[in-house]
């Protein structure tokens, strides 16, 4: 009796420790350079009780017909921040991340211990991307769609698919990544067609092989209704226009770090390569016994994942059903009783304690104030304080990744560019390429651009080539602020006349 009780306590401890490690790993510092404008937009939507119809944050493209497809997430972020600050955002988005990976792992695995283990393995692939950012909503949406589809297929709940239309209607107002949900549905139907028709045993009656696919006619109808439901948003069809413009501009996407394709041979790409190798090894060890539908989804989303760093987490979540199935066939049976009940909990306890100490020792000071947060993430907190204390009607040139922070911390100063504006084009002006020219490494285009735009203030890195250009210019530029990282230059307004 005592032995049974002890085993149950050890098993419970293992489950809680493994889940605790998953939670600690999901607590990430908000490192999205766009977080600032998300918070500012959310505050403005709450204040004005309306979504933005034109840009109000830049001086270069005022009134541009901006589609804020994440408007509802912005509102939620602003509300959470107003109540609980940056820590509130960390905790809420950690819950979203845990929910996404845990829901996906529950499709095949019942054990809390193994669910958490699978979630941790796949979460590592997304380590550099996850955090307090709207994309996490899409991870959760993809996980829910996967759960609904497999629950429907396995007849655990034949009516569960009727939740898809309201899910997509909400998702379309939270994040433009809702299209990933439709991609999952199409891959699921493709996988089922291959599994039930093309790989079915030969039969004299062809209809006998095709008949099972008829079961998915309701799913196709519900998916069509879900597509129509996505138009229930303040911008209607323009949400799709925004997505098409974003994904069709390969030149710009190739110039922004998180949109660049993943190189599996670089250190930062090792995690996704290791997960891919692990899946192949498990498949081989299990003699290629596999659910074809799960394999189709994982393989297709692998190519999506390596297309850009931004999409890596999509592969991580979409691969969970396949990884869970393969672990269930091999790993869970292969672990000895001692490994499951003693060694694994001890290892997880040490990992959780170590990661938790490291995280909180860094995060507590970094999240104590917006200024400390900016200093920790190398945002121009010092220059912002200077500009705030020396207000002027400036035409400011700023770094692309600093736009969000400036909009948040210096709302009275309009920016040259920020993370919303990469694909914006108006009357032949492509603002992203204008920014690249102005803060490029060539002197003549940069100096000509400063005059063309009548820029009178430049905020940049201390190591940037433009500092040399301005220091040797006869156009009235003077350095008004400098520290080890940042420099502010101002031009005498008389030189503009």
UniProtKB/TrEMBL annotation:
Keywords: Membrane, Transmembrane, Transmembrane helix. The chain crosses the membrane at residues 12-29, 75-101, 136-152, 219-237, 268-285, 292-309, 342-360. The keyword Thylakoid does not apply. It comes from the Bacteria. The keyword Mitochondrion does not apply. This is Glycosyltransferase RgtA/B/C/D-like domain-containing protein. It comes from candidate division Kazan bacterium. The lineage of its organism: Bacteria, Bacteria division Kazan-3B-28.
């Amino acid at each position: 009796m005592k032995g049974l009780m002890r085993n149950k306590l050890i098993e419970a401890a293992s489950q809680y420790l493994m889940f605790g490690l998953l939670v600690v790993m999901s607590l990430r510092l908000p490192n999205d350079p766009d977080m600032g404008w998300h918070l500012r937009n959310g505050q403005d939507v709450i204040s004005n009780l309306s979504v933005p119809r034109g840009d109000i944050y830049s001086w270069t493209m005022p009134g541009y017909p901006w589609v804020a497809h994440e408007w509802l997430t912005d509102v939620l972020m602003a509300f959470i921040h107003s109540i609980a600050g940056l820590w509130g955002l960390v905790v809420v988005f950690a819950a979203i991340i845990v929910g996404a990976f845990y829901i996906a792992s529950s499709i095949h695995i019942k054990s809390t211990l193994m669910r958490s283990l699978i979630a941790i393995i796949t979460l590592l692939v997304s380590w550099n991307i996850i955090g307090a950012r709207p994309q996490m909503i899409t991870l959760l949406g993809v996980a829910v769609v996967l759960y609904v589809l497999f629950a429907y297929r396995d007849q655990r709940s034949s009516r569960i698919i009727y939740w898809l239309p309201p899910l997509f209607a909400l998702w379309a107002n939270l994040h433009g990544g809702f299209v990933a949900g439709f991609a999952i549905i199409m891959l699921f139907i493709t996988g089922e067609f291959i599994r039930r028709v093309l790989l079915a045993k030969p039969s004299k009656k062809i209809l006998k092989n095709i008949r099972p696919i008829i079961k998915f006619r309701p799913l196709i109808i519900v998916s069509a209704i879900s597509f129509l439901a996505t138009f229930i948003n303040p911008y209607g069809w323009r949400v799709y226009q925004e997505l098409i413009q974003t994904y069709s501009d390969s030149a710009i996407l190739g110039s922004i770090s998180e949109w660049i394709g993943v190189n599996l041979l670089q250190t930062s790409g090792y995690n996704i390569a290791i997960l891919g190798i692990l899946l192949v090894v498990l498949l081989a060890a299990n003699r290629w016994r596999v659910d074809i539908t799960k394999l189709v989804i994982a393989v297709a989303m692998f190519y999506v994942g390596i297309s850009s760093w931004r999409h890596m987490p999509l592969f991580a979540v979409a691969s969970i059903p396949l990884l869970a199935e393969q672990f269930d066939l091999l790993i869970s049976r292969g672990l000895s009783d001692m490994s499951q009940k003693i060694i694994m909990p001890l290892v997880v306890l040490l990992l959780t304690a170590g990661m938790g100490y490291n995280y909180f020792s860094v995060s507590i000071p970094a999240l104590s104030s917006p200024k400390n947060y900016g200093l920790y993430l190398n945002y121009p907190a010092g220059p912002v304080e200077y500009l705030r204390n020396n207000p002027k009607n400036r035409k400011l040139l700023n770094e692309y990744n600093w736009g969000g922070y400036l909009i948040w911390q210096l709302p009275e100063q309009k920016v040259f560019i920020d993370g919303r504006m990469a694909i914006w084009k108006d009357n032949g002006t492509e603002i992203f390429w204008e920014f690249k020219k102005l803060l490029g490494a060539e002197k003549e285009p940069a100096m000509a651009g400063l005059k063309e735009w009548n820029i009178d203030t430049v905020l940049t890195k201390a190591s940037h080539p433009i500092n040399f250009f301005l220091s040797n210019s006869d156009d009235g530029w003077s350095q008004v602020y400098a520290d080890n990282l940042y420099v502010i230059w101002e031009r005498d307004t008389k030189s503009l006349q």
